[in-house]
Amino acid sequence: MIDDPALTRLRLEAEHGSPQALYQLATALVSRQRVDEACMLHRRAAEAGLANAQIEYARMLMYGVGTEPDPELAVEWLLRAEAAGSPIAGYFLALIALGEIALPHDGRSNERLLSAIQADYPPALRAAAIHFGRRASERDQTLCLQLLERGAGRGDIVAARLLAERLARGEGCPAQPGAAEDILRQLAAHGIARLPASAAPLPTTLPPIPPGTLALEEVLRPVAVTPLSSAPRLAQVDGLLSADECRLLIASAQPSLQRSQTIDPDTGAPVPHALRTSSDSAFDPIVEDLALRLVQLRMAHAAGVALPQAEHLTVLRYAPGEEYRPHRDYRPPESLERDRPQAGNRLRTICVYLNTVEAGGETEFPVAGARIAPLPGRAVIFDNLHPDGRPDPDSLHAGLPVLRGEKWLATLWLRERTYRLF
User: Fold this and answer.
1) Is the terminal CB of the chain with fewer CB neighbours within 10 Å at N or C?
2) Span 171-198, mean pLDDT?
3) 265 — phi, psi (to 5°)?
4) Which residues are paired to 237 by β-bridges?
5) 3-state secondary structure the chain
6) What is the Cα–Cα distance from 154 to 122, expressed in whole angstroms?
7) How many CB atoms within 10 Å of residue 176?
8) pLDDT at residue 1 above 70?
9) Comparing 205 with 178, which gets the higher pLDDT?
């Protein structure tokens, strides 16, 4: 393979082993999808003490890019970078800690996120804004807006989209339609449309957290679960996600939507099927930031299952007339053999509606005699297996056709055992 001139220049500069030159060459190779060589170069620069390379090498270890995945070793490298003064390394340590496998989720996560906020790291600003935006106090709502503004000012498109919705609707401030339209015009110039309406009520946190307190442990507080059926087991949680969290999921999914597929019962392979006419986006772990991980932890905890048992979060969009006909979520043996069979089958499902649906789009459970209306932030939780692990055919359910508007839905399938590495 013949290198392009820019890569040739970077190779020449890296011949003397300068850590910065090695890091720049590795970064260029990653952009060209030559990840094996990039991983080796990042490691060399990391061993030479370059904090940025230590972070990038750690990220490759986290996700198995150019090397075998090794979250524990990734934590070691991030701790070295953090000790050298990198708040971004601390941000990734906080992200890993949410799974409580490679690192405990404790008060250090709050300290690490705060350091990343003080460094104006955009993903940290966004995560903190959404965190404070869940609370009703005026101080927390102001903090939410300020952090979104800082993130948007540093080029965070998702933060800009969330800020525009809050300004347009007067959430946390008097309505500012002119300022919102200005942001929306700038986004439209880059082909980014306005988010669908999502006006979820603020979740209730009891006892309330003192205003201005960064407390990621809030995500693990109990929620009010309303049982709807015992056979099959079915429950509902209203207001699980805030409007900001609903918008975050939609904004994160929109760029990668594709036609939804179902599992072929004979081959176990995903295929398009008339049974399911939606579009969806399954989040690759490498694109998950702290805000997305916190939402998934909130969903898994509400369902009573540890986050590492969760498959990749999937966000679905149903246009008018689209539906998911009656089906069950547990997977056939052929499908499980292709996707981490050691994790077992799909024990439980939690779905959260993300927007206001004009008409239709209910979720129906025929055996339970339940039909649940889509409201932003509302979660539906149901078991796919009997307590002894056998598939429960009574878990049959359907996403009824959307009659007007569109429906956005986030789904987290939870396995019997650990699925994720961290």
Assistant:
1) N
2) 96
3) -65, -20
4) 379
5) CCCCHHHHHHHHHHCCCCHHHHHHHHHHHHHCCCHHHHHHHHHHHHHCCCHHHHHHHHHHHHHCCCCCCCHHHHHHHHHHHHHCCCHHHHHHHHHHHCCCCCCCCCHHHHHHHHHHHHCCCHHHHHHHHHHHHCCCCHHHHHHHHHHHHHHHHCCCHHHHHHHHHHHHHCCCCCCCHHHHHHHHHHHHCCCCCCCCCCCCCCCCCCCCCCCCCCCHHHHHCCCCCEEEEECCEEEEECCCCCHHHHHHHHHHHHHHCEECCEECCCCCCEECECCECCEEEECCHHHCCHHHHHHHHHHHHHCCCCHHHECCCEEEEECCCCCEEEECCCCCHHHHHHCCHHHCCEEEEEEEECCCCCEECCEEECCCCEEECCCCCCEEEEECECCCCCECHHHCEEECCEEECCEEEEEEEEECCCCCCC
6) 7
7) 16
8) no
9) 178
- State both tokens at 297: 């932890």
Measured distance CA(126)–CA(158) in Å, rounded: 8
Give the Cα separation of 276 and 94 in Å (integer). 37
Round to whole Å and give the CA distance between 376 and 250.
Answer: 12
| Pairing of β 270-271 and β 279-282 | unpaired
Residue of 284, 389, 404, 306 lying closest to 345 (CA atoms): 389
Structure tokens belonging to residue 398: 């359907």
Give the tens place of pLDDT for each residue, 2-53: 558 899 999 999 998 899 999 999 999 999 999 999 999 999 999 999 999 9
**CA dihedral over 334, 336, 340, 344, signed as positive or negative:** negative
Polymer length of the chain: 422
Mean pLDDT of 342-346: 98
Mean pLDDT of the chain: 94
Say if residues 289 and 127 touch (Cβ distance below 8 Å): yes
Q: Are 415 and 311 in contact (CB under 8 A)?
A: yes
Contacts of 210 (CB under 8 A, 6+ apart): none
Residue with structure tokens 């503004």? Answer: 149
Q: What does the block give as tokens for 219?
A: 């995500």
**What region, left, alpha or beta, does residue 360 occupy, with left being phi > 0 and alpha being psi -120 to 50 degrees?**
left
Q: 242 and 393 in contact (C-beta within 8 Å)? A: no
- CA gap 151, 172 in Å, rounded: 17
The first and second tokens of residue 39, run together, are 């991983």
